[in-house]
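Archive entry: two folds, one per protein. Generate the first.
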Amino acid sequence: MSVDLPTGAHARPVGAEEDRTDAIIHSFEDSGPQDVDLNGYAVEDWIAMLLFWVMALFVFLQFFTRYVLNDSFAWTEELAVYCLIGVVFIGSSMCVRTNRHIQVDVLYRWLPKSAGRVLSTLVDIARVAFFAYGTVLVWRYVNLVGNEPMTTINWNKSHVYWVVLVAFVLMLLRSLQVAWQHWKQGYSILERPEAYDVV
């Protein structure tokens, strides 16, 4: 009498693979409780996270009403899109604060230190000017179309535009803060990217 052993995706790990699996399992058992440090998070981080989970709730509600109840709530899709807009713009403020926007730093490797410092300062000034101009443009946009109604709900779109305006103001303030930090410490992430790596 022979016994058929499972093969393929349902087979149990054998030998070295089983030992490795056991080692991973035991590593979780051996590790003690970890301290959680929330000091690195700012107000915009929490707002972006809240908007993300509200958006996830709307998407789940849309999925549930469409595929389970066969009668979707149209407003959930629109509000999910508006939450995504908030997550993107508030999240951009978070990226400005932590120097995590896309940057090209290869030129700084070949420049003399003084030229790199001047160019880095010009980049900081250009970033502040960009966010200041963006803030003015969004302010004008809010004043032009702020009373436009949403498609599925009897609310103004001004709520969304105000979130974008607040995000641009935050990006402007954070870019000023980052530029000042770069000036005080004498270098920026463009000049010394390794100094900004977080372990």
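Generate the second and append.
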Amino acid sequence: MRAALAELAEVGYVGVSMERIAGRARTSKAALYRRWPDRAHLIVDAYLRFVVDDVDIPDTGSLRTDVILLLRQLTDLVGSPVIQMLHGLLADAGDNGELRKVIREQVTHLKPMLMREILERAEARGELRGKVTARQATVPIDLLRGEILLRDGVVSDATIAEIVDEVFLPLVQA
């Protein structure tokens, strides 16, 4: 995974090849193909694992506080190398239908995954009115993404609190 990310950072998606990744990782192309069907899947998987490893899922004992802290962490990633890699990956995906498809599929799974632990703990504490759907779980992250795009990455704590207090909590709490 590190080799794939290093290649992505160094040469961009267009320059990445399974052969280069295998060489950097000191393994064979066959070993890579046993795990990933193509470079798009490998690169996106490596990137998303890197993002997930970079985010600490909060556990404060409060759904509200946990979601606010998670959104703040995601906002703080905006200027990081992680996001710069994503911008490059998305730019390279422009003419590559397979890469766009893989990104869309994988990101669709990432957002609920980031919220899953928080929601499971909130459910155990009785903070939810019922089962939260995957779409409901992604609402705060989707709204945050919109704010990040509209505000050039600068999202205030007040805006994050509004997302949680005025939209998400009324959606999932009794």
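Annotation attached to the second fold: Residues 56-173 form a domain with the Tetracycline Repressor; domain 2 fold (CATH 1.10.357.10). The chain has two domains: 1-54, 56-173.
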